[in-house]
Amino acid sequence: MSNEHLADLTQPQRDRLAFVELRVRFIGEIRRQDLVTRFGIQSAAASRDLALYKELAPGNIDYDPKGKSYVLGANFHPVFDFPPERVLSWLTQGFGDGEPMRLKAWVASESPSRLTHPDLDVLASVTRAIHQECPVGIEYHSISSGRAEREIVPFALIDNGLRWHARAFDRKSQEFRDFVITRIKRPVLMRDADVQTHERSDQDIQWTRIVELELVPHPDQPRPEITEMDYGMDGGSLLMKLRAATAGYILRKWSVDCSPDHSLRGHEFRLWLKDSLALYGVKNAVLAPGYRSPDKNKVEP
Fold it and tell me: Do residues 227 and 263 make contact, with C-beta atoms less than 8 angstroms apart?
């Protein structure tokens, strides 16, 4: 699709075509009803939009009569240049799915940009695998073991504050793990392969377990009332319910002192985990600042 063809479209049309591309590229399919629901248009108008996208971007979508939906074409080439942040916000929070535009902000603001961005083609393969509930073959590069071929069954994305992970069952280690999206290369969806019961998300104990954490102002920081204001505390504490699989990431991101005796020093440690035993059995608790497993404190007889 050329810029000239795009220029001939109205902005609402461009937004709807951008939505079509997002759905097909990252979810793998789109139905007429998806456009009807998202934009409040009639079915006939939705049909025209799909036909228009197919005309302007040949090979990007194919009609699947069995599923009665449009699916990703074998010769897909993106028309819209979506920034990774926009794609991830849409995938995880459901907004920002219109045509990407560089508009003037309503108020001046600055936010630090991420140091790393996932490759959108890799991300799209992972998110299609999540949506379609199928395994994906990948080339994965890890610090400990280098390059390796793996088969994983992804079911969720995790933002650890620095980079994005895919939570997945790893067929090599036979356990659930987090895979950094930027370390995944050459993903191939295995649509005809079955997913076994033990590979599904409801079998991931760290994912299904919810831990309740009570955060309080760090005892060694002055003016605890300021910390209470900054973090919207009620009664001097902040109660959080997190998946065990994400707890360590969030505690590290927030610089929460998780030592039992609040022994960490530094201006960054504004918060203290009141009961470190709440993290017992949480695998990624090792990421939490100052955390010590109670098992390591035991004195052997």
Answer: no
Q: Are 240 and 172 in a shared domain? A: no
Q: pLDDT at residue 105 above 70?
A: no
Residue 100 lies in a domain: no
What's residue 111's pLDDT? 66
214 in Cβ contact with 165 (< 8 Å)? no
Residue 121, pLDDT score: 96
Q: How far apart are CA 152 and CA 166, in angstroms?
A: 10
Which is more confidently placed, 24 or 222? 24
pLDDT at 112: 66
Instruction: Kindly report the pTM of this predicted structure.
Output: 0.87
Residue ending a domain, among 172, 201, 230, is: 201
Mean pLDDT of 27-42: 96
Domain boundary, last residue among 201, 234, 258:
201
CA 284 to chain centre: 17
User: What's 42's domain CATH number?
Assistant: 1.10.10.10
Give the residue ranges of DSSP H helices in the chain.
3-7, 11-22, 32-39, 43-56, 84-93, 120-132, 205-208, 224-230, 244-253
Q: Are residues 219 and 194 in the same domain?
A: no
Nearest residue to 19 via CA among 61, 65, 74: 61
Query: Would the pLDDT of 49 be above 90?
Result: yes
Using the predicted structure, report yes or no on whether residue 245 has a pLDDT greater than 50: yes
Between the two ends of the chain, the Cα-to-Cα distance in Å is 74
Q: What is the CB neighbour count within 10 angstroms for residue 5?
A: 13
Check: CB of residue 168 under 8 Å from CB of residue 153.
yes
The amino acid that residue 129 corresponds to is A
Structural domain harbouring 162: 120-201
Exposure b/e, 145-155, CB count within 10 A at least 16 = b:
eeeeebbbbbb
At 25, list the tokens. Answer: 């590229």
